[in-house]
Amino acid sequence: MKTKWYLFIVTIIAVSAIIFSVLQFHQKEEPFEVGVLMIGKNRDQKFIGLKKGLEELGFVNKEITYIVKNANDDEDKMKRQIVDLLDDNPDIIVTLGGVESTLLKKEMSEKNKRIPVVFAGVAAPKELGLIEDYRSPGGLFTGINNYHTSISGKRLELLTNLVPSIQLVHVIYDSKIEISQLSLNETKEAAKKLNIRIHPYDVSKNSNVNLRNSIKKEEALLILPSFRIEALTDELVSLATDKQIPAMGLYEFEAEKGMLASYGASFYSQGYQAARFVSLIIKGNSPADVPVELPDSIRFVINKETKDAIDVLYNQDLLSIAEYIYPDQIARGEK
């Protein structure tokens, strides 16, 4: 009998200790702080996708707080904001592009900071030195390789196949952004194989796109990755519209604004996909062991209004596989 009472008392004490520990844990538990770095407002769709993804994974606002740094297309401001964010010492940092990621990695190395980082879409993260290997990143960074460098040649092929009358493609790139330069190299290789004439145009050497007086009717624009080029989207759309020439972008927002087409993973989908990585790290996984992923989807989008406005002959087979967007419906909030 004494033995039974002894075991009963020990069990009660043990259960009480567990309940007390759990209660103490929840009382002390604070929201998980997620730092977010974006170079400009165009990437806000990635942040929206990230928040939506985390909500669907079961994280509510009281469990996560965001420290958002938006540099408004100012690289020097981004550097200062990174210093401030590292001083805040969040639990995890989500970068919304390549320039944010490379600047953060440099500052973290200099300050010897060890904070897990998820990049929500970076072209060629291994070539940029963010990771050691795609299956085993091996450091503090993991996330999504948006594949935009690797498909630069495919984008050129799609554009010139879509509009067979194109005789010259003006390739808009940024020599100060490594990803943009790598994408240009891919485009040059593709142009040789496809026997297509291209004219590289470096936006880093110009405050605007000075092509208005030189572009001819049977020419086109091809956009490569760069936050500076993203900031020039309205100007590039205006140029293509005035000259009535095709323009191929990376992101659907470029097509929504008036470019003929885009081919790539959308900003929203990259942010949404990145939520899975954030969730894994919150649950205790190390970014060194979480494999980098390719985009869940790559979209070939055509602006129906722009297509109808440009007086060219189109490849009907490509038109049949494209996803159409309708700017008037988007303006009415029917996207």
Written overview of the protein:
This protein has 335 residues and is α/β, with parallel strands linked by helices. The protein folds into 2 domains: 139 residues, Rossmann fold (3-Layer(aba) Sandwich); 147 residues, Rossmann fold. The chain is 45% helix and 18% strand. It has 13 helices and 12 strands. The strands form 2 sheets. A 7-stranded mixed beta sheet has the order 7-6-8-9-10-11-12, with helices on both faces. Strands 2-1-3-4-5 form a 5-stranded parallel beta sheet. Strand 1, helix 2 and strand 2 form a beta-alpha-beta unit. Helix 2 crosses helix 10 and helix 5 crosses helix 6. The longest helix has 27 residues. 42% of the residues are buried.
Which properties best describe this structure?
disordered N terminus; alpha/beta; 18% strand; Rossmann fold; 2 domains; 335 residues; 13 helices
Low-confidence stretches: 1-28
CATH class of the largest domain: Alpha Beta
Quote the beta fraction. 15-25%
The CATH architecture of the largest domain can be given as: 3-Layer(aba) Sandwich
Compact overview of the structure:
The protein is of the alpha/beta class. The chain has two domains: 32-147 and 267-289, Response regulator (Rossmann fold), CATH 3.40.50; 152-264 and 298-331, Rossmann fold (3-Layer(aba) Sandwich), CATH 3.40.50.2300.
